[in-house]
Specification:
The protein contains 4 helices and no strands. It has 137 residues and is mainly α. Helix 1 runs antiparallel to helix 2 (34-60) and helix 1 packs parallel to helix 3 (77-103). It is elongated.
């Protein structure tokens, strides 16, 4: 299950990171899984794009921006719906990836694919994690 504290801005970090890493890692571990891995990566990318679009629409609307009135901007129903759909899909993607990793005895790779699993719950992420590590065979 994804961290329910993941906010819409963090989705723009976690989504692309996970989509890239799952292809990078899982295609090396089991090339036969490539179609399903690419399917889930594409779905994460699409859901992330929907959140990004909803955020852009919200930010174009008149009104105080985050912090301008001392309070964070309340998300619109469109952002909330896009976030909820992303969280649902991200959770399903984690289940699929975990299954493939368990088949190969590599569940330890989950935090290297899903960065939110590498951090304490409710940690605020503001930048893309370092992507320099490679899997050890």
């Amino acid at each position: 299950m994804p961290d329910q504290y993941i906010d819409p801005d963090e989705i723009l970090i976690y989504g692309p990171f996970a989509a890239h890493r799952m292809v990078q890692f899982l295609e090396r571990i089991d090339p036969a899984c490539s179609p399903i891995v690419r399917y889930f990566a594409r779905k994460v990318d699409e859901a992330t794009a929907a959140v990004q679009e909803a955020l852009a629409c919200m930010r174009e609307r008149p009104g105080p921006g985050p912090g301008e009135d001392g309070e964070p901007r309340t998300v619109t129903p469109e952002v909330a719906a896009a976030r909820a759909e992303w969280l649902r899909l991200y959770g399903a993607t984690k289940d699929a990836v975990a299954s493939i990793l368990r088949l190969h005895g590599r569940p330890d790779l989950m935090p290297r694919i899903f960065h939110d699993l590498a951090l304490p719950a409710s940690t605020k992420v503001t930048s893309i994690p370092d992507d320099g590590s490679l899997i050890a065979n």
